[in-house]
Amino acid sequence: MTVSRRVAWPVADPVALLERAISYALGSLQLVTAQDMSAPTPCREWNLRELLAHMNDALEALQEAVDDRVVALVPDEGPPNISSDPVAALRDRACHLLGSWTGSADPAPIRIGEVPVLSDIVPSAGALEVAVHGWDVSVACGNPRPIPAALADELLSCAALFVTDADRPARFGVPVESARDAGPGDRLLAFLGRDPSGRGTR
């Protein structure tokens, strides 16, 4: 992420955006069964259990940001920590996280590693990751759930600020061509290197 702290932020209410993204992702979690845990996901290096563990780690970083106003940049070492019940762990962490962000009135910048950024940037980035992985979960469960148009449209307003050529192909695949009449959900997925039909992989 290479967003300057001086950027005029396009998202009116980043915490509300995060709340909507989490609500969408929680809906996808309702699809998960024990039999799905080994299913492949659009994130080719992870099966569903590993993707859920990654999502849990991402929410943990967002919790650190709101609690401590800092997110440490530490390289991943080995596979993600996997709970015996990743759906329950993720649901509990998401609910706690929302309570923390909605109850925070601290406007102070948040440090990403050594770089201070606008406090609005972090929940917006979190919303983007949570929403797209919520879609990934639904695909892994064999029932792709469209990202709501209003949510996707607002995420599109900031997605290009978070995902640059430097992030491809490691974090995201190259953009996929979308239909000329594609809605915002499909355009967001295509920008993030995903086949909106649910057939492609990152």
Written description of the protein model:
A hairpin with a 2-residue loop joins strand 2 and strand 3 (115-117). The protein has one domain (14-167): Four Helix Bundle (Hemerythrin (Met), subunit A). Helix content is 48%, strand content 4%. Helix 2 (48-68) runs parallel beside helix 3 (86-102). It has helices spanning 14-29, 48-68, 86-102, 121-140, 149-162, 184-191; strands at residues 70-71, 110-112, 115-117. The protein has a 3-stranded mixed beta sheet with strand order 1-2-3, covered by helices on one side. The relative contact order is 0.19. By secondary structure, the protein is mainly alpha-helical. GO terms for molecular function: metal ion binding. Pfam families: MDMPI_N (PF11716). This is TIGR03086 family protein. It comes from Rhodococcus tukisamuensis.
Characteristic terms for this protein:
three-stranded mixed sheet, 202 residues, mainly alpha, single chain, 48% helix, 4% strand, globular, Four Helix Bundle (Hemerythrin (Met), subunit A), TIGR03086 family protein, 3 strands, 6 helices
